[in-house]
Amino acid sequence: xxxxxxRALMSDxxxxxxxxxxxxxSARRGESRWRVVARTxxxxxxxxxxxxxxxxxxxxxxxxxPPLEDVAAALxxxxxxxxxxxxxxxxxxxLLAGFALAAVAGVAIxxxxxxxxxxxxxxxxxxxxxxxIPGLAYAPLFLLWFGLGNATAVLxxxxxxxxxxxxxxxxxxxxxxxxxxxxxxxxGADNRRLLHHVILPGALPYxxxxxxxxxxxxxxxxxxxxxxxxxxxxxxxxxxxAREFLNTDVMLAGxxxxxxxxxxxxxxxxxxxxxxxxxxxxxxx
Length: 285
Known about the structure:
Blueprint lengths: L1 H12 L5 H9 L1 H29 L10 H13 L2 H33 L1 H14 L4 H12 L3 H26 L2 H9 L4 H38 L6 H10 L3 H32 L6
């Protein structure tokens, strides 16, 4: 009963699209899709063209500034030899393990801070002090506490990437409109239903933003800590190892793979999750 009344209230508050607007958008969908693809690809083409021109002009030595065909050849060679997939798999396992810990802990702490003044007084000063410190500054401490290996990399990734998740979740819970909370309470919603049907949907756009920022933090710290923690495989280890032998093409191949994985996570995870939740609920367009 409470859920039905709350959904009716939210449907009244959420913006609704008229049938003519929906039909017009559907009619233009094919054309707009190609425009979006072209608009997305254009800056990459410009950068690639500028890179190729600079490489072939000989401004820098070819060993230090290889053309894109050398980078592509290194990418194909490493993939065919099975080296690159091994590095990618090890890095992804560390990334997903550390980011999963950060997401669970960050969302839990952020919700606690948003709903409890006591939790806010306890955690907010600690988070405010710890968040501005660069992630690599924590690396020596984690290496002394946990030693070399995968455990240090995972824990450091989790610790550093949790800060933006905590901040954004806390902000999202605080941003939930009081009229939603009071209306649900007036309809008899208990704390569990209030959390599931009011606070979580209202804070979800902020939570997703925090997860995006946390994932970016996780990538940055993981690439650096893979070399410091002396792990045998990983994209960060591959990039730093290639630097020792001036294999710039291998370094750039690793950077390209990191960017491609980040783009895939954004397109196939975050955007789909956003579409099936906050966009469908009418909270974002």
